[in-house]
Amino acid sequence: MNSNFTISLFLLAAIACLSEGCCPERFMQFGDWCFHYNSDKVNWHDARHACERLGAHLVSIHSLEDSREVYVLWKSLADESHTNDVDRSFWIGLHDLSNENFFEWSDGTPLNYSLWYPGEPNDSHGEDCVAPYNHGSNDSARQKWHDYGCEHRLPYFCRRSVIS
Ligand SMILES: [Ca+2]
Ligand SMILES: [Ca+2]
To answer: Where are the beta strands (DSSP E) in 87-153?
Structure first.
């Protein structure tokens, strides 16, 4: 390819990013964020590292609005049969691996909001990682969180800010 043409394409992409922000390859833009959903089922640690390799983190949730945004996005990407199935939910960045019952987000943001399913977290058999329970009669119940064994394999959501 002609190098001037290549440079022009690069500049055009850069200008588009400057005007409205953009997402790297394999991410989709939703609001002010870039999301990457991977339907491959992996344990929580592998999900965390996969996000980090993409310059992102497992998604963190700081409001009901955040939660709805992520759950609606997930529903649009996952097979309809995946809703209301605990083992077909997705990993988020919350964990209490460092100190039992002291939950923190893997992206380092503060825990300023929580959306636990009734009776959770219960640390049943030493559960230290968190996912939406994906269980209940409607979306507002299903998006609530439960602690779950980190070794379970689930799809996952990565998030990063737009490139500006
Ligand atoms: Ca725990
Ligand atoms: Ca639990």
So the answer is: 94-99, 102-105, 129-132, 145-148
Tell whether pTM > 0.90. no
Task: Give 22-30's long-range contacts (Cβ < 8 A, gap of 24+).
Answer: 22/162, 22/163, 23/160, 23/162, 23/163, 24/54, 24/55, 24/160, 24/163, 26/54, 27/54, 27/56, 27/158, 27/160, 29/162, 30/69, 30/73
- How far apart are the CA of 162 and the centre of ligand 2, in A? 33
**Does residue 48 sit in helix, strand or coil?**
helix
Ligand nearest to the CA of 127: 1
CATH code: domain of residue 153 = 3.10.100.10
Could you tell me the residue range of the domain that residue 136 belongs to? 3-161
Domain count across the chain: 1
Q: Provide φ and ψ at 154, rounded to 5°.
A: -135, 155
Tens digit of each residue's pLDDT (9 = 90 or more) over 17-69: 666 679 999 999 988 899 999 999 999 999 999 999 999 999 999 999 999 99
Backbone angles phi, psi at 61, to 5 degrees: -125, 125
For residue 101, the ligand closest to its alpha carbon is: 1
Q: Which ligand is nearest to the CA of 102?
A: 1
